[in-house]
Amino acid sequence: CESLGSASGSEGDAEYAEGISLPDMDLELLHDPEDELLCANLLDVVQAALGRAPLGARRCSRLLMPAQLQAQVRTELLRLACSEPCGLRGALLDLCVEHGKACHDVGRIAADPAVVPTFQLTLVLRLDSRLWPKIQGLFASGPAFAPLKLSTGFRVMKKKLYSSEQLLIEEC
C-alpha cells in the first residue's frame, strides 16, 4: 500500500478525488449492483401496492410516486441497507401513506422472500397536501377511483431485527 501523500499517484486520480466528497466516496465504495437491481424491483412492487391502496372503507385510489420521490426513496433505502449483513435482501418493508393525522397501512413487502429479514424499514409516504380539498370526497360513501400524487417528503424508520439498538428515524 502507498500512503495518500505519495507522489506516485497520477494527476487524473488526484483530479478525480478532488471532485468527490467523502460521503460520495463512501457510497461509491459500498455500491452493490445486486442491491441496485433489487431496489429497482422493490420500488416496482411498492408502486404496484400504491396502485391498489385502500384509503377508505370502500374507496381505492391509484397513488402516484413522482420520479423525484422514487429517486429519494431509492437512495435512502440503499443507504440504510449498506450497513446490513445481507444488504437490501434482508429488508422487510412496511409501507404506509399518511394524510392529515391518519396513517394507512398499505402493505408489507419482503425485499427477498428467500432471506430471513435482518432489518425492518417503515416507509411513510405523504399525500401532496395541496390535493387535500380534491380528495375530501374520497372519504364519503359511494364508489370512486381517482389518481392521487404523493408529496416528495417522506419518513423512513429502521429497526434492526438482530440487535437491541435504538430505532433510527430519517425524515426526508
Structure description:
With 172 residues, the chain is an alpha/beta fold. It has one domain (32-160): Alpha-Beta Complex (Ribosomal Protein L22, Chain A), CATH 3.90.470.40. 32% of the residues lie in helices and 30% in strands. The chain contains five helices and six strands, in the order αααβαβββαββ. The protein has helices at 11-18, 22-30, 33-51, 67-81, 132-135, and strands at 60-64, 91-99, 102-110, 119-127, 145-160, 168-171. Strands 1, 2, 3, 4, 5 and 6 form a six-stranded mixed β-sheet that branches. A hairpin with a 2-residue loop joins strand 2 (91-99) and strand 3 (102-110). Helix 3 packs across helix 4. The chain is globular.
Itemize the secondary structure elements and their pairings.
Elements: H1 11-18, H2 22-30, H3 33-51, E1 60-64, H4 67-81, E2 91-99, E3 102-110, E4 119-127, H5 132-135, E5 145-160, E6 168-171
Parallel strand pairs: 1-5, 2-4
Antiparallel strand pairs: 2-3, 4-5, 5-6
Helix pairs in contact: 3-4
